[in-house]
Amino acid sequence: MITAFGVVALTFMMTMYALEQRGSAYIAAFAAGCALSSSYGFLSGAWPFGIVEAIWSLIALRRYRHATGP
Fold first, then answer.
1. Can you tell me the distance from the alpha carbon of 6 to that of 39, in angstroms, rounded to the nearest whole number?
2. Could you report the per-residue pLDDT of 41-61, keeping only the tens digit for each?
3. pLDDT of residue 69
4. What percentage of residues in the chain have a pLDDT greater than 70?
5. pLDDT digit string (tens) for 25-45?
6. Cα–Cα distance measured from residue 41 to residue 65, given in angstroms and rounded to the nearest whole number
7. 31 in Cβ contact with 67 (< 8 Å)
8. In a designed cystine with 19, which of 26, 34, 57, 58 is the match (CB 3.0 to 4.6 A)?
9. Following DSSP, what letter does each residue of 19-31 receive, concatenated?
10. Higher pLDDT residue, 8 or 70?
11. Which residues have CB under 8 Å from 29's CB, separation 6+?
């Protein structure tokens, strides 16, 4: 079950990354995908992966704020 969650989370994350140039909503979705992938990393016991994905999620959120902010 955790493996299936990981496959879906990573597929979603990579798809949103590929679509980022279509709009800021895809950047936000990429950030959410990174957060889901981070959750998968921690659930599967791969905590270094979980930490890296959490950092990528924060970076993507910052990029989203920059893309939509004043």
1. 9
2. 999 999 999 999 999 999 999
3. 78
4. 100
5. 999 999 999 999 999 999 999
6. 25
7. no
8. 26
9. HGGG-HHHHHHHH
10. 8
11. 12, 16
- The number of C-alpha atoms within 13 Å of 3 and in the hemisphere containing its C-beta is 0
Q: First-to-last CA distance in the chain?
A: 42
Q: Which two tokens stand for residue 47?
A: 């905590």
Q: Name the token pair of 20.
A: 């980022």
> C-alpha angle with apex 30: 24 to 42, nearest 5 degrees?
155
For the record, the structure tokens of 5 come out as: 């969650």
Q: Which helix (H) or strand (E) holds 9?
A: helix 2-19
CA–CA gap between residue 45 and residue 28 (Å, rounded): 26
The answer to whether 54 touches 34, Cβ cutoff 8 Å, is: yes
